[in-house]
């Protein structure tokens, strides 16, 4: 058995004295693991870091075996990510979500959005929005997709503001107003990919919404809790935006000084 693919490193663990077991999210073969001989060597360690993109060849006698991996670098993202808490927690959160899926099941859409997340992790709002869209896609891939295109009550695609916690379907502002306290708030950027997340409050509300459905359909039935990286990711976004805001105010104050 043999295949060649492109992958993003999610993690590694040591195997024996010199080797490592590598965990990748690949474009065509899903989340996949394999043994890298010499993976703990000085030459290989900088390559086998989470976030790096690699070209991988996997070989095994039989399909169900762990198999051997031979990897070559495509791009080194780990060095850029290491000083960015938003990026590090974001990658850890995405990896935790991917581990909910069966190993070796192809999910090319998840691979693509993970690639985009790693390319835009310098901007906290964009990273938050992309991870949120990743979570929405994860729910769909797990069989619990949300219907956010039209109002469940009126069929309208205008002013979609809420989501029903019972059905996971969108509800318009007017139709949901009488039950607003029982519905989940849905920020505008969740409705359309052409709308950008505007604030930390919108990011927080959106993650509160997906958290409700992850808890109901995924974490609680599996006797799991939300990944620790999820809270770390949201906290890192909050710190990043607060720091940017403080720097902006400081710059404005300096600009008016004589």
What is the structure about, briefly put?
This protein has 258 residues and is α+β, with helices and mostly antiparallel strands. It is built from 7 helices and 8 strands.
What would you note in describing this structure?
The chain is of the alpha+beta class and 258 residues long. It is built from seven helices and eight strands. The strands form two sheets. A five-stranded antiparallel β-sheet has the order 3-2-1-4-5. The chain is globular.
- What overall form do the CA principal axes indicate? globular
Largest pleated sheet: 5 strands, antiparallel
How many DSSP E strands? 8
Low-confidence spans: pLDDT under 50, at least 5 residues? 249-258
Cα separation of the termini: 72 Å
- The tally of helices reads 7
Major sheet strand order: 3-2-1-4-5
Mean pLDDT: 91
Element-by-element helix/strand order: EEEEEHHHHEEHEHH
Q: Tell me the strand percentage band.
A: 15-25%
Q: Gyration radius, to the nearest Å? A: 21 Å
Helix % is: 25-40%
Structural class: alpha+beta
Task: Please render the helix and strand layout as text.
Layout: E1 2-15, E2 19-26, E3 30-36, E4 53-59, E5 68-75, H1 78-81, H2 85-98, H3 108-119, H4 124-141, E6 160-163, E7 170-172, H5 173-176, E8 184-185, H6 200-219, H7 228-256
Antiparallel strand pairs: 1-2, 1-4, 2-3, 4-5, 6-7, 6-8
Helix pairs in contact: 2-3, 2-4, 2-7, 3-4, 4-6, 4-7
